[in-house]
Design a protein that fits this description.
Elements lengths: L1 E10 L2 E11 L4 E5 L6 H8 L7 E6 L2 E2 L4 H6 L1 E4 L11 H11 L7 H11 L15 H13 L5 E5 L7 H14 L4 E6 L2 H7 L2 E6 L2 E6 L1 H7 L5 E6 L3 H9 L4 E11 L2 E8 L6 H10 L4 E6 L4 H13 L13 E2 L18
Parallel strand pairs: 3-8, 3-9, 6-7, 7-8
Antiparallel strand pairs: 1-2, 1-4, 4-5, 9-10, 11-13, 11-14, 12-13, 12-15
Bound molecules: adenosine-5'-diphosphate and magnesium ion.
GO molecular function: ATP binding; ATP hydrolysis activity
Protein name: ATP-binding cassette domain-containing protein
Keywords: ATP-binding, Nucleotide-binding, Transport
Length: about 350
């Protein structure tokens, strides 16, 4: 459906987009995820033909957008970062105006606009001035504008920016529904957003692709980190000492008291070492019962930091403040206590 090949966009010496290639399948909801300045808007502006690339090509249904601007633009609806709304028009006037602008003839205008307003739920404000609408409603009008002419592809640049949590949920819901009949590319710097809406994610950072996969697969790829949390009833210092002494433990960190009589800990072990039985035995001997133990799944946030960490020279995991980690001296003497304490279990 959409093929992006080796796209480069330079602003002077600065490469905003640096050899980006990916494809988008028909009917897919694809997310472009990256921090501010990653090159998301630039990529989208090129996809929609608003900006020309320094090099590389974009094909829509096999047609190059530069060679076939009219045909390809008809296939694409675009919600830019700043939707060009005419705030002194009513919603209905504005959508009629866009209809004329896009020369969307051939369709029954009234019916078409009514369907769009219904889809994004703005029928009840059709005759209100855009200036008087809330940010959430304005964003829906922006979406409606992109849908005029019934394009197959919708390109939505940060569609939930500036909305309150309720409005975010509503817009996501609208996007998911649109995804049933459209190919959607949306950008976001919010991980939960792409996780909630997209089937596939392209992570970009500094103009380069850091990873492409489904949100689930991205989580799986990096989930064998041998990292888990546990809840222990007992003294914090003793638990840290005992776990820290276990061979194969990279670090142990207290996460603080989550329940009245217990403390949570985060442990990371060396790859391919199962330290759990040793931790269990060690704590049991000291009469420090483990109340729960579970693997820590990486959130997309962890993954994002992981795949971009090389460039930014920072700690791999979002939730760990390096300075607070109890660094464990490698391979302390294993405790050779006698077994008499086991009666305490
Ligand atoms: P994003 O949408 O991911 O936040 P952008 O595509 O807007 O990122 O910007 C990517 C990079 O290109 C940034 O470093 C930005 O400063 C630069 N950039 C964007 N637009 C221009 C422009 N018109 N002139 C010069 N540099 C630009
Ligand atoms: Mg942007």
């Amino acid at each position: 459906m959409i093929e992006i090949k080796n796209l480069v966009k330079k602003y002077g010496e600065n490469k905003a987009v640096d050899h980006i290639s990916f494809t988008v399948k028909q009917g897919e909801i694809l997310g472009l995820l990256g921090p501010n300045g990653a090159g998301k808007s630039t990529t989208m502006n090129i996809l929609t033909g608003y900006l020309s690339a320094t090099s590389g090509e974009v094909l829509i249904d096999g047609l190059d957008i530069l060679d076939n601007p009219v045909e390809t633009k008809k296939k694409i609806g675009y919600l830019p970062e700043m939707p060009p709304l005419y705030t002194d028009m009513t919603v209905r006037e504005y959508l009629n105006f866009v209809f004329d602008l896009k020369k969307a003839g051939g369709t029954d205008r009234k019916k078409h606009l009514a369907e769009i307003m219904n889809a994004v739920k703005i029928t009840d404000v059709a005759d209100r001035l855009i200036a008087n609408l809330s940010k959430g409603y304005k964003q829906r009008v922006g979406l409606a504008q992109a849908m005029v002419g019934n394009p197959e592809v919708l390109i939505l640049d940060e569609p939930t920016v500036g909305l309150d949590p309720m409005q975010i949920i509503e817009i996501r819901d609208v996007i998911r529904k649109l995804g049933k009949h459209h190919t959607v590319i949306l950008s976001s710097h919010i991980l939960q957003e792409v996780q909630a809406v997209c089937e596939r994610v392209v992570i970009i950072n500094k103009g380069k692709i850091a990873a492409i996969d489904s949100p689930d697969n991205l989580a799986k790829t990096l989930s064998n980190e041998n990292k888990f949390s546990l809840r222990v009833a007992g003294d914090e210092r003793s638990v840290l000492d005992i776990i820290g002494a276990v061979h194969g433990v990279k670090y142990v960190k207290s996460l603080g008291r989550k329940e009245k009589s217990s403390i949570d800990f985060l442990v990371e072990a060396e790859p391919d070492v199962d330290v759990r039985p040793l931790i269990f035995n060690g704590l049991a001997k000291a009469n420090l019962p483990i109340l729960s133990m579970q693997a820590v799944d990486l959130s997309l946030e962890d993954i994002f930091l992981e795949v971009t960490a090389k460039d930014r020279n920072i700690a791999s995991f979002a939730d760990i403040d390096e300075s607070s980690i109890e660094i464990v001296a490698a391979k302390k003497e294993t405790n050779k206590e006698d077994d008499s304490d086991e009666s305490n279990l």
